[in-house]
Amino acid sequence: MSAVPESTGVEGGGLRAAASEGAARGSPEGPPERDGRAAAEEEGEISARRIADRVLSCPDVADLSRGPFGVVATHLPGGMVPGVAVRDQAIEVDIVARYGRPLPEVADLVRDAIGGLARGRRVDVTIADVVTDVGERKE
Question: pLDDT by residue (tens digit) across 14-33?
Answer without folding.
Answer: 333 333 333 343 434 444 44
